[in-house]
Specification:
globular; about 375 residues; alpha/beta; eight-stranded mixed beta sheet; Rossmann fold; 2 domains; single chain
C-alpha cells in the first residue's frame, strides 16, 4: 500500500532523539509498503533549524520536513488550524507524487493527527491515527486542546493505541470503540551485549549496582523524583546514571548538588541509541519516574536486554512489565514507593536471559508492524 505518514516526531539531524519509536515503526512498515514521511519542523529561533534537510532519502524512505511557523503565545486556539493549513499543500503534493496515497497515517492526535485526519477527509482517503501518550493523556485533558484531539479521533477510520489505557482514553474522548486497536509499540531489538563484558568496557566495578534513568529532562518525565528515589534507595555501592537532556538540566544539576548521593549521580546528556543500549545491557535496574506515559520505549528496550525495571504505577508500563515479568511496579506514585520497588526488583531472582526472551517475543518490531499492516489492509 502507498502510505503517507505525518509526524513531527520523526527524528532528524537537528533533533535526533525525537521519536525514535516512530522511525522504527515506519522503517519496518516500509518493508511491505511504499511510505513517504511528512515531518513538519517548527521554526525555532535557534541554529538547529538550518541543520534540517528539507528533503532526504532515509533507509529508502522519502522524508520531507517542511518548516512551519512556530505557534505564537496563546496559539493553542489557532495553532492546530495553522498547522493543518500549512501542511495541506505538502500532503497534497506528496500524495500526487506517490501516484495517489492509499491512506494517511498520523502519529499523535495533537497537532499532527488533527492536520492528517482533516486532510484525509478532504482527499476522501482513509486515515489511521496512532496515540503515543501525551496527546490524549495531557492535551486531551486540557480544555483548549481537547476539541482538536476529539476531532482527530472522530475522523480517523482506525485508531491505534499503544496501551489499553490510551485506548480507553481515546474512546472517552470520542473515538468509535469499533475502530480502536490496541497494539503495543515494537522494538527493533539489537543483539544483547554480555553483561560482564559491557560493564568492563564502561569501567563499572564488579560490585557496583548501576541504576539507569532514561528520558528527556522535562517535567512529565520527573527526573527530580528519580533523584529523590535514588537517595531513598541508599545503597552505598550504587550509582545513578541519567541519560537524556532538556530544559530541566540546570535544575537537575542543582538538585544533584544538594543530594546526599551527589557523588554517585551523573548526567550523561543525549547519547546515540547504540550507547544507550550499552548502558541498558550493563545496568542492574532501569528506573522510570514518569507519571503520564503510554508504554515507553526505554522500558521495553531494557527488558529486551534482560534488565529489570522499577516504575510508577502507570497502566501502560504495568501491562508491559507484568506481561514480561520484568520488574516491580511501585505501590504509589511517590519517590519512597519507587525506591521500595527498586529494592525489590534488585533483590529478585529473575534470570536475565528469560526476561530478555519474554520481552523480545512480545514486543518485537516485526510483531507490532504485522498487526499495524493488518489494520492497513482492513481499510483498503
Amino acid at each position: 500500500m502507498k502510505v503517507l505518514v505525518v509526524s513531527h516526531l520523526f527524528p532528524s539531524r537537528a533533533y535526533p532523539g525525537s521519536g525514535p519509536f516512530v522511525r522504527d515503526q515506519v522503517v519496518e512498515l516500509a518493508h511491505a509498503n511504499t511510505v513517504t514521511v511528512v515531518s513538519p519542523v517548527p521554526k525555532h529561533r535557534d541554529s538547529r533549524r538550518v541543520e534540517v534537510e528539507l528533503e532526504s532519502s532515509e533507509d529508502g524512505i522519502r522524508v520531507i520536513r517542511p518548516q512551519l511557523p512556530h505557534l505564537p503565545v496563546g496559539g493553542r486556539l489557532i495553532g492546530p488550524w495553522m498547522w493543518a493549513f500549512a501542511l495541506r499543500p505538502f500532503l497534497h503534493r506528496e500524495s500526487r507524487a506517490m501516484g495517489g496515497a492509499d491512506l494517511i497515517h498520523g502519529h499523535c492526535a495533537y497537532p499532527d493527527g488533527f492536520a492528517a485526519t482533516r486532510f484525509a477527509n478532504q482527499a476522501r482517503l482513509p486515515s489511521v491515527l496512532t496515540l503515543w501518550g501525551s496527546d490524549v493523556l495531557v492535551h486531551g485533558a486540557m480544555r483548549l486542546d481537547r476539541w482538536f484531539v476529539s476531532s482527530a479521533l472522530r475522523r480517523a477510520r482506525a485508531v491505534i493505541a499503544v496501551s489499553e489505557q490510551l485506548g480507553d482514553r481515546a474512546i472517552s474522548l470520542g473515538a468509535d470503540e469499533s475502530r480502536v486497536h490496541v497494539i503495543p509499540p515494537g522494538v527493533p531489538y539489537r543483539p544483547i551485549r554480555p553483561y560482564d563484558e559491557t560493564r568492563a568496557v564502561l569501567r563499572i566495578e564488579p560490585a557496583e549496582v548501576v541504576i539507569v534513568w532514561i528520558g528527556g529532562l522535562v517535567s512529565v518525565k520527573q527526573p527530580l523524583e528519580a533523584i529523590s528515589a535514588f537517595d531513598a534507595i541508599a545503597l552505598p555501592q550504587s550509582r545513578l546514571v541519567m541519560i537524556g537532556d532538556g530544559p530541566l538540566r540546570r535544575e537537575l544539576q542543582a538538585a544533584i548538588r544538594n543530594s546526599r548521593s551527589a557523588d554517585r549521580i551523573s548526567i550523561m546528556g543525549h547519547l546515540d541509541r547504540e550507547e544507550v543500549w550499552r548502558w541498558q545491557c550493563a545496568a542492574d535496574l532501569i528506573l522510570n519516574s514518569s507519571r503520564s506515559e503510554g508504554t515507553p520505549l526505554a522500558v521495553l528496550e531494557a527488558m529486551g536486554a534482560g534488565t529489570r525495571v522499577a516504575a510508577y504505577p502507570l497502566p501502560g508500563i504495568a501491562a508491559a512489565v507484568g506481561a514480561a515479568n520484568g520488574g516491580v511496579i511501585a505501590d504509589s506514585a511517590t519517590p519512597n514507593a519507587l525506591a521500595d520497588a527498586a529494592i525489590r526488583a534488585l533483590t529478585a531472582n529473575d534470570h536475565r536471559h528469560s526476561l530478555a526472551t519474554n520481552a523480545r517475543d512480545r514486543f518485537s518490531i516485526e510483531r507490532s508492524a504485522a498487526s499495524i499492516d493488518d489494520v492497513y489492509r482492513s481499510l483498503s
